[in-house]
Amino acid sequence: MFKKSKRKIIGALLAVLVILLFGTMCVIYLASYAEMTRENRSLLEQYVSDYTLEEKTGKPAPGRPEGAPHRRPFNPPRLELSTFYSVAVSKNGQILKVDTADVSTIEEESLTQLAADIIERGKKSGVERHLIYQAEDKGSYILVAFLDNTVMVENVETLISYTLIFGAAALVLLFFLARYLADRIVAPLEESYKRQKQFVSDAGHELKTPVAVVNTNLEVLSRQIGENQWLSNIQYENQRMSALISQLLDLARTENAAPQMETVDLSHLVCGETLPFETVAYENGLVLNSDIEESICMDGNSVQLKQLTSILLDNGIRHSTNGKEVAIRLQKEKNYAILSVSNDGDEIPPEQRNYLFERFYRLDAARAGEDSHYGLGLAIAKAIVLTHKGTIDVQCHDGKVEFKAKLPLHSRNSKK
Predict the structure, then answer these.
(1) Element at 289 (helix H, strand E)
(2) Against a cut of 0.70, is the pTM above it?
(3) Strands 287-292, 325-333: parallel, antiparallel or unpaired by DSSP?
(4) What is the pLDDT of residues 72-91, one digit of tens each?
(5) Number of helices followed by number of strands (H, E) in the chain
(6) pLDDT in tens, 202-214
């Protein structure tokens, strides 16, 4: 139980820390990328705005080569250091000027084809092949300008790679931190639970003696004064107290002591335990039907498995309402033995099903303690199933209530 709680705490802590860490990093990356992209577009817009193309028959301005853009005084350093490409296309589709900035990785033909595609699509701006582009009508021609975004993209990819590497290392450290915190959180609860179980065990043992003494004195008094209403009341309540103590001790033994395991023929055991309950079912106007698959073996404790079968059968018979039968089934499914007991009864609300296996829990609180049943039977059944590394749950369908225990099979039997 506490191991499961620790896993949940570790998972919750890791989820919160990972969301905070990687969420913060994602926000930083996205904001940085958006800002750098905005600045690059601003630079590209300035480049396009300054760009002029001399007519082929004209002469370039003094000190400035043909096709070069005007440079405003005090241009920002990034504008001078950035790499721009451009293609000037006349309105009739003639290529007037191609500027590859003398970069060998960019060919004029591919740049021209890319510009033609952009003009054909009618897009004004966007990103193509790590190139930010902007198309603008300059009057007598159309200019498609590009800003090389490769360095920024590579820097972002490198940064993300390093973040993932160091993030993985940080995740390992966070796991051990979460595990340490989970241990610190669960430790007081685990200690309190152990003390509670020890108290139940000690109290049960201590109460056995006075209950036995009271019972002995009652027998002596009944011999001396004969039948007496008050003695009968005391004897009835003493028997109830004795039954409660016995159930508490059974629960304490099941939870605290590791039982001796052996190879058990579960089919034979369940069949033998079912026979006495046929009479009990008959006395309650019911028919006990059994469907027990043969030769199902497992590693388990025969005493506890008998007790598990008895608890489920007794529970099914006592809580059968408006029905005529109680059914017990034992079947093999893959590497598990499925022991189930079903009876006719009202559907149990889903919010109450998880509490059925808690100590002293009863659906009908008004009948608590009647017939020497105190809501401990299903708690004992759950403890037995958990001791055998299995699971138990309750299902409601077609007007029936079914308790189903799933127990791991003996390895030799699972290979058949």
Answers:
(1) strand 287-292
(2) no
(3) parallel
(4) 444 555 666 677 888 888 88
(5) 10, 12
(6) 776 777 778 788 8
Of 83, 127, 128, nearest in space to 110 by CA:
128
Measured distance CA(330)–CA(327) in Å, rounded: 10
**What type of residue sits at position 204?**
G
Q: Tokens for 165?
A: 């590497």
β-bridge mates for residue 297, sequence order: 265
List all residues 6 or more positions away from 163 whose beta carbon is below 8 Å from its beta carbon: 25
Distance CA 24, CA 5 (A): 28
Cα torsion through 275, 370, 392, 184, rounded to 10: -140
Residue linked to tokens 């089919």 = 267
Cα 88 → chain centroid: 59
Question: Could you give the CA distance from residue 210 to residue 280 in angstroms, rounded to a whole number?
Answer: 32
Angle formed at CA 274 by CA 270 and CA 275, multiple of 5 degrees: 130
Q: Element (H or E) spanning 238, and its range?
A: helix 229-256
Q: Please tell me the distance from the alpha carbon of residue 282 to that of residue 295, in angstroms, as a whole number.
A: 28
Mention every residue, 6+ apart, whose C-beta is less than 8 A from residue 56. Answer: 96
Q: Position of tokens 């926000």?
A: 27
3-state secondary structure of 102: coil
